[in-house]
Amino acid sequence: VQLVESGGGLVQAGGSLRLSCAASGFSSDYYAIGWFRQAPGKEREGVACISSPDGNTYYADSVKGRFTISRDNVENTIYLQTNSLKPEDTAVYYCAAARHCSGSPAGYGTWGQGTQVTVSS
Hints:
By secondary structure, the protein is an all-beta fold. 0% of the residues lie in helices and 50% in strands. The protein is built from no helices and eleven strands. Strands 2, 4, 5, 6, 9, 10 and 11 form a seven-stranded mixed β-sheet that branches. It has a four-stranded antiparallel β-sheet with strand order 1-3-8-7, with no helix packed on it. The mean pLDDT is 96.
C-alpha cells in the first residue's frame, strides 16, 4: 500500500502546478483522499479532500476557488490543481488515505513522502 506524490516545483506567484498522488497496492477510489501541506515551523494542515464513493470535495478556506482536487480511477491517481499560487502556499504537500474526509491528519492512515512546492514573490 503506497502513495507517491509528484508535480511539485518552483513557480512564480500567480502560477500553477498540478500535483499528482499515485496509489498502488489498493484501489484509491474506495477511500477518501486528502491533500495536506506543511510549511517550515508550522503544523500540517488540510488543504483539500475528495470523498468516496460520492466524490464530494472539500477545501480549506485559504485555497477555495484556487485549488481543485480530482481523481482518475482508471489511473488510480488523485490530482490537486493549484492555480493563482501565492508565496504563502509554499510548503511540502502530502496526500493521504482515510475512510472519510477530515481536516485532521489524525484520521489518515497511509501517507506519501511529500512533494515540495515553492512560490516566489
